[in-house]
Structures are given as structure tokens and as C-alpha cells.
Amino acid sequence: MGILDRHFGFDEHDTDLETETIAGLTTFLAMSYIIVVNPLILGEAITIDGYSQGEVQQMIAVATILASVVAIGVMAFWANRPFGLAPGMGLNAFFAFTVVLGLGVPWEVALAAVFVEGVIFILLTAVGARRYVIELFPEPVKFAVGAGIGLFLLFLGLQEMEIVVADPATLVAMGNVATSPVAALSLAGLALMLMLHARGVRGSIVIGILATAAAGWLLTLFGITSPGTLTPPGSYEQVTQDGLANMIANVQYDFTPLVAGFVDGLGMITEDPLVFVIVVFTFFFVDFFDTAGTLIGVSQVGGFLDEEGDLPEIEKPLMADAVGTTVGAMIGTSTVTTYIESSTGVEEGGRTGFTALVVGTLFLLSLLIVPVISAIPQYATYVALVVVGIIMLRGVADIDWQNPAWAIAGGLTITVMPLTASISNGLAAGIVSYPLVKAATGEPRDVSLGQWALALAFVVYFAIYFTVEAGNVTF
């Protein structure tokens, strides 16, 4: 205990081993869905001769876990921050559906692009360039990120709980709890979690996730709901037909074909270098600002930011995602980034790298039970995001709403994130609007040259991104 205290600084951060452990378990449960979801998404684009789609997905699951463990190890021991990392949602979809299936870029080359992005991140982080750019963010944007991410989490959680559903007339509408078992059970789980949290029960988020997941399985086992309704699709049939022991024993752990594909991809870069550069730039830009926004937003919840809204020694946690991205590409997965679900563990009291160490250890142990992880219904983990999202909304109190520049930049940052399902888009709205409003109100001197350059960079990025999305670029 003394060794852990000295290394991670429990006393300095006013925490203890039990609190950090519960926080790590909470973060892991909130983000463990990536072990299942990432292979499903990347498996749409990655095909390997001689292997079935299921075997390829299992390879990607192993690569996902190992890349996460490497990145989290850097976060725990080098940065000493309570943040979890894994291949990022959104970035994996861009990899599979836009780059590989849309542009026709071979998946091997796409992995090479992610690798180059990671190497660039390592170099920029080492010389302090990433920290410099992040500290250019206008103050209202920095203080609005936490509330923006909170609203984003709320929206994601309510969608997965089927409380918010698609509507052709208004885009979204209220789901019908009376006809949706997922919505009904999720609401019950949410009520339990909120009551436990309000009473200050330690581990309230973990209890809520596990209780909701267990209830879904029990309702299925007793025949009250059909398989696949409250349990992940196919999981009930697999468990009852194959047996959990056989499922675990038959996992495809050999991911060397993915490594071989990455090596081949390095040799294919010269076939169309311009498209390769565009792909690298897009990966780089989105990951840069998604990670920056997540770090600032989650740090705000934990009280890690200084008076200017900056995270001290931010280059250390930034190095974690850079190393994770580089290693992840080499073993067969898309860009690794810091997860917004880390806010669940921070809310449970996680303050040091030991929280991250617990997350990494649980990811490593999940190698032994990949099928078990897939048995946790996604709506059960997303209930936790709703609770944390509500808590993160307190960040709106840090914004000076009487100041036009703060109100507009902060307001756009907060609202654009959930409405476009992108942290980087929310940052873009705030960063671009801030200098324009300052200039309009006769205060252009308050805007640095670097902030103008950052706003211009976003304009250039969107011009390139929309060109790629329109399919005007092919490999």
C-alpha cells in the first residue's frame, strides 16, 4: 500500500485504494462495449483470405484489447491520470465505411495511415506542439467542453435506452416505454442508479450497470422477453447452444494476419500518395481535437484544470493516445483515443493513474473471457452515461453568459457536440466563432494570431473532409 501511495500519490490527491479500484471498475464497465463493437465495425472492412468473418472479428477484438492495454499503461504509469483509452468510436467507422469501403483504400493501407498519424502524434507531443495548440483554445471553449460532453453523453445514453428515438418529421422523438422492454428496463436501472448516487452510495454506477444487465438476462431466461430483446443479439443462443466454456476456448487469439496486413500496407503507400496524405490528415485532425476535448472535459469533472482552463502536464496523457494509436495500427486496429466514459470513473472518485491501471488490468483479463464481455447489454452501460451526463452539465456555471463572446462560443460548443455527435465539431464551432465575435464587438486584440490560425485550420479541415465525404476522392 505504501508503494502504491508513493507512486500514484493517493494522499496528495485525497483518494485511496478502494475508491480508485471502484472508479477503475466503473470506467471499464462503461467502455467495455468497445471490445465487441470495434470488431463488428472494422470487420465490415477487413477481410483475410482463409479466415471467416467471425475469426477476423475475434482477431480484431484481441488487437483492440492489447492496444487499449498499451495506451492505458502509459496513462497509468507515465501520466498518472484516471483516464481510459481504446480505439475510438467514430474514428473506427470513418476507417471502415469512409476510407476503406467508400474511398476504396485497402484496409492494409488504412492501418498504415493510422500508424503514420500515431508517429506524428508522438513527435508533436514530445516537442510540446500539441500542448501549445490545446492551450490556444479560447477560455469559453475550454470551460464549455465539460457541459458539451455531458449533453453528448446524455443524448447517446437516451438513444441507446430507446427513450429518444428517430422520427422522420422531427429527427428525434420520445420513445414508447410501454411497448419497449429496453426503455422500460433502462428507466428502472436509471432510477436505481440516480437514487444510489443521490444517497452517496459508493459504486452506485457499477451497481446500476450490473443490476440492469442481470435483470435483462433474468427476464430472458424466464421467458418474459424473447432472446435478443434485452440481451445482445446472438449471445443468448451462443450461451445456451455452445456453452460459455466452449465459447471461451474457441476464441481466435492469433492476430498475426492483421500484423502482416499492416506490413503490406506500408509497402502500398506509394500507389496513391495524395489520397494517403488526405486520409492521414483527416485521421489526425479528428483524433487531435476529440482527444483534446475529452481530456479537458473529463478533467473539469475531476477538478484537474487550472484557472485558465488548462490541464497541467497535458503532454503526458496526450502521449498515451499517441503510443496507443501507433501500436494499435501495427497490430490491426484503428485510432486509439481517450474515452469520454472515463468521466464515470472520475465521478466515482478516481483521481490517479491507479484508476487507469485497474481499467487496463480488466481489459487484459478480458482476453480470457471475450464472449462474457459481449454478454453485457449495451443499454446497461449507457444508463451510466445518462447519470454522468447530468452531473457534467454543472460546467455551464463556469461560463460568463453575459459576455457575448463567451455566450456564443460556449453555447455553440455545448450544443453542436450532441447535435453532430462529435466532440471535435463542437470545438470547431466554438473556436471559429470566438475570434469572429471578438472582432465584431471591437475587441480583435483579445484574439491571438494562433487562435486565428486555429480557426482557419478548422475551415481547411472541413473543406477537405466534405470533399472526401462527397466521394470526390478515390484510391
SSE string: HHHHEHHHHEEHHHHHHHEHHHHHHH
Number of strands: 4
Overall mean pLDDT stands at: 91
Strand % is under 5%
Largest sheet: number of strands, sense, barrel closure: 2 strands, antiparallel
Number of domains: 1
Spatial strand arrangement across the major sheet: 1-4
From the N-terminal CA to the C-terminal CA, the straight-line distance is 55 Å
Gross morphology is: globular
Please compute the radius of gyration using only Cα atoms: 22 Å
H/I helix tally: 22
Q: What class, by secondary structure content? A: mainly alpha
Helix content: 55-70%
Poorly predicted sequence stretches spanning 5 or more consecutive residues? none
Protein name: Uracil permease
Subcellular location: Cell membrane
Transmembrane segments: 21-41, 56-78, 85-103, 109-129, 141-158, 178-198, 205-224, 275-298, 352-373, 379-397, 409-437, 449-468
Membrane topology: Multi-pass membrane protein
Give a short synopsis of this structure:
It is a multi-pass membrane protein. The longest helix has 30 residues, at 273-302.
Topology (SSEs and partners):
Layout lengths: L1 H7 L8 H15 L2 H9 L10 H27 L5 E3 L3 H10 L6 H20 L2 H6 L4 H22 L3 E4 L3 E4 L6 H18 L5 H18 L13 H8 L1 H6 L6 H12 L5 H30 L12 H17 L4 E3 L3 H6 L5 H13 L4 H4 L4 H15 L11 H17 L2 H18 L8 H21 L6
Antiparallel strand pairs: 1-4, 2-3
Helix pairs in contact: 2-17, 3-4, 4-15, 4-17, 5-14, 6-13, 6-14, 6-15, 8-14, 8-19, 8-20, 8-21, 9-10, 9-19, 10-19, 14-22, 20-21, 21-22
